[in-house]
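To assess whether the prediction recovers the assembly geometry, we first specified each molecular entity separately, as shown.
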Amino acid sequence: MIPLTILAGYLGSGKTTLLNNLLRQTSKPIGVLINDFGELNIDSELIKNKDELTISLTNGCVCCNLNDDLGSSLEFISKQGIEGAVIEASGVAMPIKMSNYGQTWPGFTFNGTIAVVEGQTIKRLLLDKFVSNTVKSQILQSDLVYLNRHSEEDIKLISSLSKEIVLEENVSNFTDLVFNIDSTIQHKTNLDIVDHDNFYSNVFITEKPIEKKAVRDLIANNPNVERVKGWISNKINETWLVQATKSGCNFSLSNNDTKTRLVIIHTKEISLDALAAEL
Amino acid sequence: MIRVYTAKSVITMNASMPRAQAVAIRDGIILETGTLESMQPWLSKFEYEIDDQFKESIIVPGLIDPHLHPSMAAVLLPTHFITAMEWKFPWGTTPATTSAEKFDERLAEAISKPTHKDLFITWGHHDLWHGAMSRERINSIEKKKPIVVWNRSFHELCMNDGALEYLGINESEVGNASQIDFEKGRFFELGLGYAIQKLNPFILDPEIFKEGLLKLKDVVHFGGQTTIADMAVGLFDFDNELNMQKLLYENEDTPFRVELIAHATALIGRAGGTNEKTEQLIASLEKHNSHRLNFRKRVKLFTDGAFFAQAAQLLEPGYIDGHQGEWLSTPQQFEDIARTYWNKDYAIHVHVTGDLGLELAIDTLEKLQSEKPRFNHGFTLEHFGFSTPEQIHRLAKLGANVSANAYYVHELSDLYSNHTVGFERASSMARVGSCFREGVTTSLHSDFTMAPAQPLMSMWVAVNRINEKGNTMCAEECLTPQQGLEAITINAARVLGMDHEIGSIRAGKKADLTVLSEDPLKIDPIDIKDIEVQATLFEGKVFNIDQK
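The predicted structure of the complete assembly is given in tokenized form:
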């Protein structure tokens, strides 16, 4: 299974710069898909794997475009012996929709979504008549925000939308940033993040065996539960890595020998005990 | 030789002579309309023949569908339709199927017929009418033979055991996918993308694609159209779409012309990545022009997502469930692309579905007008799902046209009222009455396969605004029959920049006529959709339609 990371963020936010930094540093063969039209400003010399593809506009739905370019490109690169893949999403792509590629397309496992945010323009974009909702959703729906060219004020602004923020100056290892999103998140919780209005997160640990269906039901039946991630251990002692959102649940077998540990992210105060009883 | 066709009445759509009794034609051009007496200056000087085969019928200008997608039609028409609504086709009517039992019955019946195709695809399944679909349910009808049930929304399909096996889809590959339910054989959203990938060799097979385009040829003739516009050449595969249409439509037995409008963003990659290079490529497409198929200075752009998929971008207060619509490019990119074509004097056709998508198009037009003022520029808002009265006032001032898909009102207004945006906005979707009141040049289109390719059906919806539940939605936005007929003739010609040649019956225009069984301006408006199209004339040549 090839880990797939999505880079989201509005036009000009610094996605390509981040991608260039990654390609400059990494020694891994990586597949890169760029989901946008227009001139390709990535330095092709930097791309280790020569099968990189530029994907033209696919930000429609499949009913209007029977050639799912992104899907067919994923299919193609999955056979090129790569160890990781990155999709640079278009400036208006919705992370949750994009993450489905990682969760649905055979051969890939979903690593996470990074919203790239540029400090200098974010305040204006969040007030823009046309894209304020799009940009806000990009931040809310991503696992991690990478904030660049920012001021102290920008950190406060973004903190009101996301708990998981990585600042440009704190990143030296781009491979880790892009391919180990979970460890980065752990690391970043040390940051002094102001109180969060929209989401609560709780850790749930149990010795009781938990089945995949229970996680599916939990997220489907509780409107306030936005995301569940972590590991479950089932009756026959298999450990599964869980990444579940409202739009779908992804499970992959894990070598990690652990008991059930889940992070449950929800929108309203809810009783963890009540949730646990459902599992 | 002059040929004079007489009729019970000729509706000319030429305001200076709205009605006539006869049309005189020579070499594909209309010489004169009027009465046999008023035509004497011509008839006394040249040889002529009077043809009264339409003497009991009504002649109207050749109908125009200014926005459909031949390539989508080519994919869908070879499938077997089992639908909740009745669809009329030249090869027979697909009856309304409104229950789960009936659906299964019709599917079993269709499968039992012999076919040369390995894979059987049916289109039109709708949960609300036909109940949930599953692998097991299809298996209980037929397990071995590969069967695909494709949802009316296009966003979901189901396969039986036979199809999964035939396409080589197995649990180890897709068992964990979040938008594929292997157990139920169900593929949706991106899972659908995966399934389509596997199905593409069959649905885009050149022979089947050809079969689809040939079926569309009959469908267009049956609907009475003498001009259609392919409003996004390049949707799937530019060369294939153009070459196949040329091969199959550029011949004497084709009773219509196809106006071609290139899909700008689909061609960017091929042109070399910039808007300037893409514009040069599009400008060069006229070299492909032939008698029936023509590119002109027109281009297709997009703002927001699909109307059927609830991806339209909405102004406040948005969707009831709070979900967001989609942009198909960033507003800046849209503006840059639009500026490129505006400055080169193109007629720009913009796909807009929601009122925020429309707002972007209008704001952009306003900016471009102040940078480089243009008159009669042909900037056209296509689809026109949600709009506000104030936007219509603004777009009228800016000189824009509207080409609306009124069928939305019929199929979606009830559903969108209850579940999507509420009654006020849902009932006023496709607000075309206001467009006429503001003096906007307004046409109607099918966007086939989003609605039946029958202009009289589009006219019927716009005039009556009756939804699938039988309720009238926003009578204030109904068109008069006169306006409805303008919208599928002269106004549609204006929207395509062709009104000097087609769209009305007057001396000098191409002799494109449609022959009807009833008078669409005098019949009870509720019966407009049931008027029979008996024949069409394309550039003077008669093409009769067999009634089935």
